[in-house]
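Incident review: delayed structure delivery

Summary: a single-chain prediction request sat in the queue longer than the usual turnaround. Root cause was a stuck worker, restarted by the on-call engineer. No data loss occurred. The affected request and its eventual output are reproduced below so the record is complete for anyone auditing the incident later.

Affected input:
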Amino acid sequence: MKTSITKDKAVHTVFGIVPSRRLGQSLGISPIPKKTCNYSCIYCQLGRTQKFTKNRSLFFPITRIIQELKEYLSSISEAQYDIITIVGDGEPTLYEGLGELINQIKSIQKKPVAVISNGSLMANKQVRQDLSLADVVLLNFDSWDEESFKKINRPLKLINFKKRYEGYLKFREEFSGILYLEVMLVKGINDKEEQVSKIAKLIEKIHPNVVFVNVPVRPPAESWVKIPDQENIDKAREILNARRMDYLPAGDFSSLEKNPIEAIIDIIGRHPMREEDIETFLHGRIINNPDRIKELKEQIISELRAISKVKEISYGSTRFFRLV
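Output delivered after worker restart:
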């Protein structure tokens, strides 16, 4: 294996627990340095890709990730999380030790393991073998040909839509677990009936267990990205025979970081938080003291605004905080 170990020991590879509308209360593992990817999707909630790469690498030692996970698990109960999800700050299949990481996670705890991937490397047999070790795999699928693929997902040039799709078909034959596909709809880009029908015809051959329709409810990488009209969302859901993600219930954020501001910074590095999320997060730590929660929330927001790497974004009628 080619080794490219990140030297920053302050970087946490285990994070959360984060509420997932698809997977429940998810304990996250990110084996990829921040915004290291082979796509730069127009709707990405983490912003534009900062480091494009085509190579799979061992960015963090597996022993370090597992040790951090063991320490985390020793501080929580099994009832606090539903699943362990490998979901990168970029693309998790770029992690060369993915298969071994999944095996070791399963050896130290009993909950299922999921991987959320953009599907970019599905033409790679080793990647498919690695993913086959997971219990649940969620892949992105929101384009229908090479042109739309480049427009929406903006992949590295060497990633070919046709070969990627063929990889999806092979993976479905090889994988005995649960396969989810997610279609992210963007207004004026892939939300028209004709476009969604083309996506649906391709998805039909993949035979996923569930298709989710999603919309950019969090601040996207590009400011011009908008949520489609309700009529188009409903029609897409009908055509795809899909579940709509933004209607699904979500749980609460949690973190082992003792300092609330440090805990929130750890979370927003992977998952933007709304003001309401921050308040809910504090409710989980401070019981029956609304005055203290309000005071601490205002203090935290003030501190977040003073940190240069934290970006406050107004999106729709909501304010979000994201680490850049």
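Verification: The chain has two domains: 14-251, 259-324.
Action items: add queue-age alerting; document worker restart procedure.
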